[in-house]
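Entries read sequence, tokenised fold; example below:

***
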Amino acid sequence: MERPSWDKYFMDITFLVAGRATCLRRRVGAILVKDRRILATGYNGPPKGIEHCGDRPEGCLRDKLNVPSGERHEISRAVHAEQNTIIQAAVSGVSIEGSTLYSTNHPCILCTKMLLNAGVVEFVYADGYPDVLSAELIKEAGIIVRQFDR
């Protein structure tokens, strides 16, 4: 019996987490791992107690305004998956310093800044994301970045 690599194992879990996402445009999952232990998980969707875009008559505001991916994050009702992992860890009192992010998508600039300040040292992602500034900051910070080939 062949066992999956650690990257495959954690990335498979990340895609399972993404299955809980409620964003109409992109379902994203993320987990933070340290010493081969999952510290926190997150998926994208509105804050607690806020209606999901799919339940609102007007649907997704970003779609309605025809906003391209990677732009105008401030008008999204969703909290990003990476942000939710940071929040989950904070609420649980778990330090994520020195951890690795596994994400279904490359993190945006907002998430990148948060992850850098939280001390995340490696990003492993499956699919790209159109955010050049994020990639520039990651490179400048010396973060290890690997695209996982599914």
